[in-house]
Amino acid sequence: MKFDVAALRPLRTGLVVVLGLLLAGIATRPIEGPTWEKVRAKQPALRLESLKDALGQGVTVGLLGGFRAIVADLFWIRTNAIWETYDLPKTQTSIKLVTAIDPRPLFFWLNGSRMIAYDMPNWRIDRAGGWDAVPDAVKRRFEEEQSAVAIDYLETALAFHPEHPLLVLEIANIHLNRLKDVETAARYYLRASRHPDAPFYAARIYAELLRRLDRKPEAYAFLKELYPTLPRDSVMAQPWVVLERIRELEDELEIPEEQRFRE
Amino acid sequence: MSVASVPFSFSRLSLIAGNTFLEAVRQKLFNFLLLLAIGLVASAQFFREFNFGSSELKFIADFGFGALIFFGSALTIATTAQLFFSEIENRTALTLLAKPLWRAEFVFGKFLGVFAVIGVFCALTIGLMMALLFHREGELMAVAPDEFTGGRIIAYGDLLIVGLLQWLKFGVLTAIVLLIASFSNTNLFTVVTGFFVLVICHLQYLARDQWSNVDNILLAGAVRALSLIFPNFQLFNLADEIGQGSGVSGQVALGVAGYGLIYIAVIGGLAVYSFRNREI
Prior knowledge:
The complex is a heterodimer of chains A (263) and B (280). Chain A is mainly α and 263 residues long. Chain A folds into two domains: 66-162, no CATH class; 164-263, Serine Threonine Protein Phosphatase 5, Tetratricopeptide repeat (Alpha Horseshoe), CATH 1.25.40. Helix content of chain A is 71%, strand content 0%. Chain A contains eleven helices and no strands. Chain B has helices at residues 10-25, 28-42, 44-47, 56-89, 92-98, 103-143, 156-183, 187-211, 217-229, 250-276. Chain B is globular.
């Protein structure tokens, strides 16, 4: 049987094409590499550690572009409609779908986490027989489980919005209000307060929690450091409240008059 | 007269490009997608009622780029495949290529025709979006002058740069679809493969991230090669940088433009090579 060389032509063409593309890839690396690093540095959605999340973001960023804003908005409206039916699995999935489509708005992360941490334990309690019928230990378990889901969700949010103070504060709030874990909550309030855009109340709450934990000298030292950094006339910063607390702590700690904080 | 006996001619190439352009703008698909994109951009003001996240002007810009990217990609893939195969199915390619016409002239003529059509699409979409933003920004400036003490806040130059880079990305996509069409037998196969390649090009950066994490040397090499074969389309997505910090960097924009132009030339060349080896 005679071998037909022409039959190999498509294969040869394919190989040349692949080789050409490979060489183009290598040749453009010096341009593409540094440019890509700069582009990526400005887009948290493109520098995710998790391959699963990164795949989702790669597709939505690339194919939907800015359209993902409106698509996510429409899904958020749908999430609220599902939320009204108290359907836990569907609501939770829908919340996560919204932020998978568009992780940029903080609104989705904050409100989604609140639904998970504050509403869903009550739904589970209702389904288990109601507030009076369900034992406290079970209620506590529901709260802990939903809080864990919400905190995990907010940790994911931090991958898109690194160290955003409102997200860190939301985690702190869950530890404080849901899990009643003052120690951990204080750590998160401190972490949030260190961000340059943090709301002033983060630092004030941290100091209050230190007082509650009976770490008054620490609270006193923290407030003394905080006070000079606050704008004097700001209603948000409330320096007069901070000063009042400094005075209260001085009384509680019985600081001698000559060692007391001076404005 | 054989092809070898005539020199490469830009006038023949421009004739094919012009004809392709006319054919494309007469297509229902082009007009439909163009109207849809323009309609969506124009209606962005009404959709802002559904906006929960970003500022109003950012939302309108995002929405405009969404329409540009989504419909632009669909238009590029569908139009390129349709115009290429219409020549083959109607046998006009046979008539054309029987004359002293280089296959490179044919392929690059098709490319330029489609690229021009996509250019019109991008110009209309971006132009409308900019006009809409300018109008709305003016309204907001009148209502809340305190928010605009430093003048207008939208960087219109950045919008234009991002729009131009998207056009270049569509150019690379056009070249890719032509390359696929040069060996493919059907329009449908070309459209479907073109779409998958578009997705791969948007995800190829992940392959590059992963190759160094793979222990198996052969597999790592294969992943690395794969990441080099497909161009990185995420590079062209600078829309998120608008309004962020110093905005779109000129150096980055030039780098991306250079990258796109190199790929258009290389993939276009490979499409010519592949088409020359094709029996029609």
